[in-house]
C-alpha cells in the first residue's frame, strides 16, 4: 500500500518539468522507512534497503548522465515513474528486479576490487585529514607566536 501524502496536485507539473520528483517522493519514503524500522518483521527492512541501494546506483549514474538525459522530452516524468516503480508495493518491484539482475551480480563479481578501492579511498582520506590537522596545528602555533611577539 502506498502512503498518500497531502501535496498540492497543481505543483506536480512544475516539479516534473524542473526535475524535483525526489522532493515529492521523499516524504512517502521517510514514513515508509520509519514504519519498516519499527515493525517486528525484517522483510520490509530488506525491501527498503534494496530500494536505497538501487536509488543510490541510479543517482550516481544520473549525476554523470544528467547533462544529456535532461535534454530528452519527458525525462523527468519517466524518472518519476521509474522511482515509483522501484518502490511499488509488489513482491517483484523495480528495485528488487534491478538489484537481483544487475547490481548484485556486478557487486559479487567485483567485490574484492571494490573493497580494495574503498580501502584506498579511506587511507587517502585519512592521510589528507592528518595533513590538514598538522597544518592547522602549525598555523595556530604561528598565530599564537605572532601574537606573543607583537605584545
Tell me briefly what this model is.
80% of the residues lie in helices and 0% in strands.
Structure write-up:
The termini are far apart. The protein contains 5 helices and no strands. The protein is an all-alpha fold and 151 residues long. The longest helix is centred in the C-terminal third of the chain and has 57 residues, at 94-150. It has one domain (9-150). Helix 2 runs antiparallel to helix 3. It is 80% helix and 0% strand. It is a multi-pass membrane protein. Plays an essential role in heart function and development by regulating the organization and function of the sarcoplasmic reticulum in cardiomyocytes. InterPro entries: TB2_DP1_HVA22. The chain crosses the membrane at residues 52-78. One of its GO terms (cellular component) is sarcoplasmic reticulum membrane.
Strand content: under 5%
Could you give the order of the helices and strands? HHHHH
| General shape | elongated
The count of strands amounts to: 0
Give a short account of the largest sheet: none
Which SSEs are present, and which pair or pack?
Layout: H1 12-18, H2 21-38, H3 43-69, H4 75-86, H5 94-150
Helix pairs in contact: 2-3, 3-5
Give structural attributes.
Receptor expression-enhancing protein; 151 residues; TB2_DP1_HVA22; 0% strand; mainly alpha; disordered N terminus; sarcoplasmic reticulum; coiled coil; transmembrane
Amino acid at each position: 500500500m502506498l502512503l498518500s501524502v497531502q501535496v498540492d496536485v497543481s505543483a506536480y507539473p512544475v516539479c516534473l518539468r524542473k526535475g524535483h520528483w525526489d522532493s515529492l517522493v521523499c516524504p512517502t519514503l521517510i514514513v515508509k522507512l520509519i514504519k519498516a524500522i519499527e515493525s517486528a518483521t525484517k522483510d520490509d527492512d530488506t525491501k527498503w534497503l534494496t530500494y536505497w541501494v538501487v536509488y543510490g546506483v541510479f543517482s550516481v549514474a544520473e549525476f554523470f548522465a544528467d547533462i544529456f538525459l535532461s535534454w530528452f522530452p519527458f525525462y523527468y516524468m519517466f524518472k518519476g515513474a521509474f522511482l515509483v516503480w522501484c518502490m511499488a508495493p509488489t513482491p517483484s518491484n523495480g528495485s528488487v528486479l534491478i538489484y537481483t539482475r544487475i547490481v548484485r551480480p556486478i557487486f559479487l563479481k567485483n567485490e574484492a576490487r571494490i573493497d580494495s578501492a574503498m580501502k584506498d579511498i579511506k587511507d587517502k582520506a585519512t592521510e589528507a585529514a592528518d595533513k590538514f590537522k598538522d597544518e592547522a596545528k602549525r598555523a595556530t602555533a604561528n598565530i599564537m607566536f605572532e601574537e606573543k611577539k607583537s605584545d
